[in-house]
Amino acid sequence: TLAVGVGDLKKVLSNVKTRGTLGEIQLGAILGEVLAPEQYECNFDAGKQNNERVEFAIKLPNDGGEAVYLPVDSKFPADIYSKLCDAYDSGEDVAAAQKNLREVLLKCAKDIKEKYINPPRTTDFAIMFLPTEGLYAEAVRLGLIEELQMRFRVNLSGPSTMAARLNRLQMGFRTLATQKRSSEVWDLRSQI
To answer: Model's pTM, two decimal places?
Structure first.
């Protein structure tokens, strides 16, 4: 029964569209757990001429002006990652499999930059969400964190690092709200 279940899971994950949907659902669940619904948007139009919509965009406060959005896109090259895992298990072609994964993630980051980064409507950087810790760890091992930031202005996040990023953002939102409220209190107090 377990083998049949694993086989069914492999079939589901072999479909590119299904994998993408799985990553998007996971990202949406993480966003929904940490942020309030008004703090992010789904299928956000970054305002570029290509009319592409990013899966999610986090709404960042802007001093009195229109909000700025942080694009977040999920990528799940499970087939490429699976080939790398198989290469590790067999001990064959590990370097080739690593190179292949590296190239795919670089292309994903380039696509994110070209499609969704559009200041001043968006931040001048974006986040690429990798929906499994193993895939994220492999990207870190390949040294892609710094390279993607420098070349494409794209930050990588896995499930746990995404939750941590969102918690930091949430703390920043709270601090900003507290500062705003305390300014209002001081203004009211000075009027008395």
So the answer is: 0.81
CA distance from start to end of the chain: 74
**Per-residue confidence at 20, pLDDT binned at 50, 70, 90?**
low
- State the average pLDDT over residues 59-77: 87
> Which residues lie below 8 Å from residue 166, measured CB to CB, with a gap of 6+?
30, 31, 34, 35, 58
SS (H, E, C) the chain: CHHHHHHHHHHHHHCHHHHHHHHHHHHHHHHHHHCCHHHEEEEEECCCCCCCEEEEEEEECCCCCCCEEEEEEECCCHHHHHHHHHHHHHCCCHHHHHHHHHHHHHHHHHHHHHHHCCCCCECCCEEEECCCHHHHHHHHHCCHHHHHHHHHCEEEECHHHHHHHHHHHHHHHHHHHHHHHHHHHHHHHHHC
In 10 A of CB 174, how many CB atoms?
10
Residues 147-192 pLDDT 10s: 999 999 999 999 999 999 998 887 766 665 565 555 555 555 566 6
Which residue's entry shows tokens 């198989």? Answer: 86
